[in-house]
């Protein structure tokens, strides 16, 4: 793929949402009260003509603290990054050595967090997004801090053969992450993905993912967050989200013997002393972060 094809690939469709999250992480990195730091994030944003003018510093946010895109959704992404960083680091602290990032996007955890020796990070996303990421990080001379195995695949289809073919060991525990992914998948694909994760998860595996639990009202859909994303950076989230009814994957995992905890982002915002709290007609009100664990053998 040429450089222009790579940037065009990430700038359109759902790939553009990866740029949105990268820009939010770049802004977060430079906040005085940052919950997460990603020095690579701004380079992705700057490398694509369509996003090169987006903010990557708090002082570049139009309207400052009143901006619903970067202040509300952006801070949400900052909090989410931190909480899910902590989730993965807890897993490796407990001995897990396989990480599988589903819909990894422009997440650079493999490069920016401290992983124990022997840790392998599998990243699944579209070919365009992964190739673009590889090119930008390569240009920066970035070196992964875990064994890094990017796997281009469509997560609506069967990606499991690619994962096991790349060395994933289903007999050893893994930490799985689907951050900002499931909104975009049809319900049937989410069900297949959960069945695959279940099938490939040895005892001691953990999974974190993010969902919206209920359809959003007209007032929420026409509210400031979605409107600002569409108008300020041309990301029409409501068109990109799958419009069908969502499966209850948390209940499905419980039925398969996983222990499941359903949390709101607000709980973490309160615990960290910053991040989004409930507000009227809230675009984050139905977001849930789910943490699931397959009990270790003998428990
Ligand atoms: C909002 S981004 C989140 C990226 C990353 N997890 C983060 O939080 O920074 C959603 C990602 O899911 C990927 N994605 C969506 N549908 C996909 C599919 N069917 N197959 C592979 N990747 C997909 C997109 O390419 C994009 O990188």
Automatic annotation (TrEMBL):
Could you tell me which SUPFAM superfamilies the record lists for this protein? S-adenosyl-L-methionine-dependent methyltransferases
Keywords in UniProt for this one?
Methyltransferase, S-adenosyl-L-methionine, Transferase
For this protein, what is the EC number? Answer: 2.1.1.-
BP GO terms, sorted = methylation
Q: Which GO terms describe its molecular function?
A: methyltransferase activity
Please indicate which superkingdom the organism of origin belongs to.
Answer: Bacteria
EC main class here is transferase
**Per its UniProt record, what NCBIfam families does this chain match?**
mthyl_TIGR00027 (TIGR00027)
Physiological role: Exhibits S-adenosyl-L-methionine-dependent methyltransferase activity.
| Family assignment from sequence similarity | Belongs to the UPF0677 family.
> What is this protein identified as?
S-adenosyl-L-methionine-dependent methyltransferase
């Amino acid at each position: 793929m040429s450089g222009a094809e790579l940037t065009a690939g990430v700038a359109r469709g759902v790939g553009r949402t990866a740029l949105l999250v990268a820009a939010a992480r770049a802004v977060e990195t430079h906040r005085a009260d940052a919950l997460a730091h990603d020095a690579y994030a701004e380079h992705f944003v700057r490398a694509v003509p369509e996003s090169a003018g987006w903010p990557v510093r708090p002082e570049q946010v139009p309207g400052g603290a009143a901006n619903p895109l970067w202040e509300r959704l952006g801070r949400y992404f900052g909090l989410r990054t931190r909480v899910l960083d902590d989730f993965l680091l807890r897993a490796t602290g407990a001995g897990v050595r396989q990480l599988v990032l589903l819909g990894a996007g422009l997440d650079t955890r493999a490069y920016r967090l401290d992983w124990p020796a022997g840790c392998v990070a599998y990243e699944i996303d579209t070919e365009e997004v992964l190739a673009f990421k590889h090119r930008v990080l390569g240009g920066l001379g970035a070196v992964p801090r875990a064994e890094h195995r990017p796997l281009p695949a469509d997560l609506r289809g069967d990606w499991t053969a690619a994962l096991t073919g790349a060395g994933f060991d289903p007999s050893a525990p893994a930490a799985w992450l689907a951050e900002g992914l499931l909104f975009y998948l049809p319900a049937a694909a989410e069900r297949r993905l959960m069945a695959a994760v279940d099938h490939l998860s040895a005892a001691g595996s953990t999974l974190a993912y993010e969902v919206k639990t209920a359809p959003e009202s007209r007032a929420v859909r026409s509210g400031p967050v979605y409107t600002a994303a569409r108008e300020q950076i041309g990301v029409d989230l409501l068109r990109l989200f799958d419009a069908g009814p969502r499966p209850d994957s948390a209940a499905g995992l419980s039925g398969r013997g996983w222990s499941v905890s359903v949390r709101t982002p607000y709980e973490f915002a309160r615990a960290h002393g910053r991040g989004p709290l409930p507000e009227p007609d809230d675009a984050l009100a139905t977001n849930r972060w789910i943490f699931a664990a397959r009990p270790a053998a003998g428990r």
